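Here is one chain, start to finish.
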Amino acid sequence: MKKVYFIPLLCFVFLFQSCFEVIEEVKIKDDGSGHFNFVINFSQSKTKINSVLKMQKINGYVIPSKEEIKNEAAKLEALAQNTAGISNVKTNIDLTNYIFAIDLDFQKITNLNAVFLKLKNSKKISPTIATDYFTFNDKKFIRSQKIPIKALYDKLEKADKEVFQTAKYTSVYKFDSTIKSFSNKNAVTSKSNKAIKLNGSVINVINGNEKIENTITLN
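Its structure:
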């Protein structure tokens, strides 16, 4: 029997075959410190989720209790809080609307990458999967995509693949300085030119039709 709540914010992805949205936001100051917020929103499917939670298993997956989900979130919060350069960690587990979020402050962008590395190691995820998703040097911010998502997706069973068909992805990056240039032409800057937003489809990202990577140069 399979369990999928090893990463709390992703715990419902394979269980409910429902609409969801991933939102990633990074605010970074000129000195390299900043704030990170990550949300998975299943609110559009809460009626279906409430029904599934009454079951013991679905598609070979064990259905975690609400208490187990909260406990896993607490473990994630403690892991992040105990990472050097990370502070003000907070997880928000809304089990009414099924919105799962974590936000934290970092002194340097490398501290944020260290959280991802600790999470990967704690869950015994393949060491070949890189976790340095962000860099910030010399007024250049880079969002990389180093996970072999297509290869991982291809290994899933058909029922598991279906959860990604309607999933949406949004990234928002905010800065103290104005944006000089950016590489992802699907992204849109704000009126102040100090923020940039990218909306996309998760399945298109998986299939390589859309990119989440972006190199942003600041003035």
